[in-house]
Design goal:
mainly alpha; 263 residues; 10 helices; signal; 40% helix
């Protein structure tokens, strides 16, 4: 029994010797055994002491500059109203100095504008008088209009306006210039069958390619339909513009013309 325990202890010791050592992530040269964690070494304390925040610079106090007083508004040299107000201000007592200073400013302002006095913001002052205010216009003034117009005069004016009306009677549309060119509008209104309904017999080889090639020549579907009718359509289709035989060439659609006429 004892030899077995000795063998087990020896095997465990061999395994422990083969185990790699765990590196010390916090180790530095000359500082063994610190391990992982906060640095409490003497060298770290010295670094913190050397990197102290410098003291703030002292603040020196200085007096604020005095506000510059604005120069008085320019005024005429020989203005008796301003001169009287300034004389009263210079000879006034401290109790009446504010009121006299206000009189001086009012006199200066009056000399620079149209002559109207300054209205100070005070509940005791009356509202200023409105100048050149015509008020409501004469056309919107019921009293002014009723003095000139009456129900009878309104009836007479309406009758005079109606007498000037001219009713234009409808006339036939003028003939279209260009000789005997087919009219696609008249053709659309004369034929009531929808697009795609075959009414005419069509024969031909490679009709699809012929249709695409010949229709690409025209600038619009209306132009293609006009040429189709001028060449004997819808009964004849020499150029293959109407392969399905509905009488409408190159995807021309009569529906917009019928809708415009109410049909």
């Amino acid at each position: 029994m004892i030899p077995k325990l000795i063998l087990i202890a020896g095997a465990l010791g061999a395994l422990a010797a083969c185990q790699p050592a765990v590196p010390d992530s916090g180790a530095q040269p000359g500082v063994p055994g610190r391990g992982v964690g906060f640095d409490t070494s003497t060298q770290a304390k010295q670094q913190v002491t050397q990197q102290q925040v410098p003291a703030a610079a002292p603040v020196q106090s200085s007096a604020l500059p005095t506000a510059a007083t604005s120069a008085p508004a320019p005024r005429p040299a020989a203005d008796p109203v301003i001169a009287t107000a300034e004389s009263a201000l210079n000879n006034s007592s401290p109790a009446t100095a504010a009121a006299n200073a206000n009189d001086v400013e009012n006199a200066r302002a009056a000399s620079l504008n149209s002559g109207a006095g300054v209205v100070n913001a005070s509940p005791a002052n009356a509202a200023p008088t409105l100048v050149n205010n015509p008020g409501i216009s004469d056309e919107n003034d019921f009293g002014a209009v009723s003095s000139r117009q009456s129900i009878e005069s309104d009836k007479a004016r309406i009758a005079a306006n109606r007498a000037q009306y001219t009713v234009v009677q409808p006339t036939a549309l003028p003939s279209r210039e260009g000789g005997n060119q087919p009219n696609v509008v008249a053709y659309a209104l004369q034929n009531k069958h929808p697009k795609g309904t075959q009414l005419y017999r069509r024969l031909g080889f490679n009709a699809a390619n012929k249709f695409e090639k010949n229709c690409a020549v025209y600038r619009s579907a209306d132009e293609a339909q006009i040429d189709f009718l001028a060449r004997g359509g819808p009964e004849k289709d020499r150029k293959g513009l109407d392969p399905d035989g509905d009488g409408y060439a190159c995807r021309w659609d009569p529906t917009p013309y019928r809708a415009a006429s109410g049909g």
